[in-house]
């Protein structure tokens, strides 16, 4: 097996302890099915070409520059050397600024995951940081220049090593209020909530990424195979959303409870409640007094 190639090498520093580390990509899309863009008429691959939006003439790479639009059709031109001059200088050091409880981590801010491993002679200091964070159940917030940008990184203990996730900046993460503002204020209670809790209890499991299939990739592979073999794929039926009036019925079916059993249970429960109320009423001081009056009268 070929050893993975590090994406970045540098140091991680906590307090006055410095440890050489290597950063490796933890997630990759290289195994996904990829397509080429073709000319439908000839079957040949097509090339992407940049052209001037006004003249329609091709523009070579050396003549292309970055530009920031300040108003319609007017741009501030940024030369490559000007952009390079403002890129933060990298000292190749992940400086840990704080340790935070793992329970406080908001995964909404996660960007890309990487593995951190000791490089060269940094094993002892690396193990000290890893085991210390695991025992304290904390993660580390660190900053460094990665791939020409100053990034905030969340570092956590992960098996024999560390996992580092680059974080989105606050301005990049939309407020949840925008997504949830149209939701009505509903309070779910009674049988519906009890059935939902029952279904959740019966469906409890453990997290195993190996159980999750990429159905889109599998469907694409089957489509390509079917096209090669001249077969037609069956059309898939789309799921139908539960209507508000059918929600209780769907919950009962999910919990394995039919309508007649549920009705019988409710009737039995109501009968028991009525019997309890009657018993409590007959045993109250006023009821006893009334009964005594009737006997003496």
Automatic annotation (TrEMBL):
Gene3D superfamilies from the UniProt entry: 2.40.290.10
One Pfam family per UniProt: Ku
UniProt function note: With LigD forms a non-homologous end joining (NHEJ) DNA repair enzyme, which repairs dsDNA breaks with reduced fidelity. Binds linear dsDNA with 5'- and 3'- overhangs but not closed circular dsDNA nor ssDNA. Recruits and stimulates the ligase activity of LigD.
Superkingdom to which the source organism belongs: Bacteria
Stored CDD domains: KU_like
Span list, region Disordered: 252-297
UniProt protein name: Non-homologous end joining protein Ku
InterPro entries tied to this protein: DNA_bd_Ku70/Ku80, Prok_Ku, SPOC-like_C_dom_sf
Assembly with partners or alone: Homodimer. Interacts with LigD.
Ku domain sequence ranges: 56-185
Family: Belongs to the prokaryotic Ku family.
SUPFAM superfamilies found in the cross-reference section: SPOC domain-like (SSF100939)
Source organism phylogeny: Bacteria, Pseudomonadati, Pseudomonadota, Alphaproteobacteria, Hyphomicrobiales
Keywords: DNA damage, DNA recombination, DNA repair, DNA-binding, Plasmid
Gene name tied to this protein: ku
């Amino acid at each position: 097996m070929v050893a993975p190639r590090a994406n970045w090498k540098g140091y991680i520093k906590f307090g006055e302890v410095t440890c050489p580390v290597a950063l490796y990509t933890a997630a990759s899309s290289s195994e996904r099915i990829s397509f080429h863009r073709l000319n439908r008429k000839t079957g040949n691959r097509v090339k992407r070409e940049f052209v001037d939006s006004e003249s329609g003439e091709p523009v070579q790479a050396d003549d292309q520059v970055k530009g920031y639009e300040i108003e319609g059709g007017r741009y501030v031109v940024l030369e490559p050397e000007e952009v390079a001059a403002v890129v933060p200088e990298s000292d190749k050091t992940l400086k840990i600024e704080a340790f935070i409880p793992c329970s406080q981590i908001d995964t909404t801010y996660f960007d890309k995951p990487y593995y951190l491993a000791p490089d060269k002679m940094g094993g002892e200091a690396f193990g000290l940081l890893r085991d210390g964070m695991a025992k304290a159940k904390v993660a580390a917030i660190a900053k460094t220049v990665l791939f020409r940008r100053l990034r905030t990184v969340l570092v956590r203990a992960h098996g024999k090593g560390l996992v580092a996730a680059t974080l989105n900046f606050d301005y990049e993460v939309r407020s949840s209020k925008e997504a949830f503002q149209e939701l009505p204020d509903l309070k779910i209670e009674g049988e519906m909530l009890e059935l939902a809790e029952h279904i959740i209890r019966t469906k409890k499991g453990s997290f195993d990424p190996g159980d999750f299939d990429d159905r889109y990739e599998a469907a694409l592979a089957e489509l390509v195979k079917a096209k090669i073999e001249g077969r037609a794929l069956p059309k898939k039926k789309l799921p139908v959303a539960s209507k508000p009036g059918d929600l209780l019925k769907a919950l009962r079916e999910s919990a394995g409870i039919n309508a007649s059993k549920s009705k019988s249970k409710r009737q039995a429960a109501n009968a028991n409640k009525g019997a309890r109320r009657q018993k409590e009423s007959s045993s109250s001081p006023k009821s006893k007094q009334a009964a005594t009056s009737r006997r003496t009268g």
